[in-house]
């Protein structure tokens, strides 16, 4: 049977927090199956803690039965590349190990992406919870108010995204070794796909719930280390444009 959507999930030290992530994925998978979509779950255990590995290997809640891959890469971008290489779906949903997705995310993202093979789909709304409460709307690149030049100084979209498998194979994530001071693999990838003619858009009515932790957050780690995003070919174009500084919160869906 042909697989429509491959859900890729990288796990490291989430432990039992992964349970809530899995339950959210289960609901989204069930919603997609009701719409006639076949899904698979590809889980990469990268330098995984024993507790995280035990949960994924033994929990009866992990469904669909995942493709399990073990790696020792320590680089989130490269881990995602491995998961995508082992996937069989025509579309890829990039998921996070300690976050939650709305029930309709897979179905709505698939519906939007089918309209145009050059779309990168993001959830409409992001909701931060746990150690911080915050919400914002992802900007839509096709909006007249969208200011691409701000990508030089800030990342508009979180890592959760949905696109055709060929997109990720054509433009894989680039390594961000901690020893070199680079970070934000998703920021760099967002820029690279734009430079290649892809368009970031949103699936209306969908949400991503982002867990803010006291420790262990990769974004927080990059911030404290004052990491830099790798240079993107997109920056060469944007550097010649006039721009004004805005925050992500200034944007709303058209």
Radius of gyration: 17 Å
Please tell me what the overall shape is. Answer: globular
Mean pLDDT: 86
Percent strand equals 25-35%
For the sheet with most strands, the description reads: 5 strands, mixed
Q: Quick one: CATH superfamily?
A: Spore Coat Polysaccharide Biosynthesis Protein SpsA, Chain A
- By CATH, the topology is Spore Coat Polysaccharide Biosynthesis Protein SpsA, Chain A
Q: For the terminal residues, how far apart are their CA atoms?
A: 38 Å
Structural class: alpha/beta
Q: How many β-strand runs?
A: 11
Helix content: 25-40%
> Which architecture name does CATH use?
Alpha-Beta Complex
Overall number of structural domains: 1
**Helix and strand element order:** EHEHEHEEHEEEHEHEHEH
How many H/I helical runs? Answer: 8
Question: Can you tell me about this structure?
Answer:
With 254 residues, the chain is an alpha/beta fold. It has a single domain (5-242), classed as Spore Coat Polysaccharide Biosynthesis Protein SpsA, Chain A (Alpha-Beta Complex), CATH 3.90.550. The protein has helices at residues 17-34, 50-58, 76-85, 105-113, 165-170, 185-195, 218-224, 233-238; strands at residues 5-11, 39-46, 67-71, 91-95, 100-101, 119-130, 134-137, 161-164, 182-183, 199-212, 228-229. It has a five-stranded mixed beta sheet, sandwiched between helices.
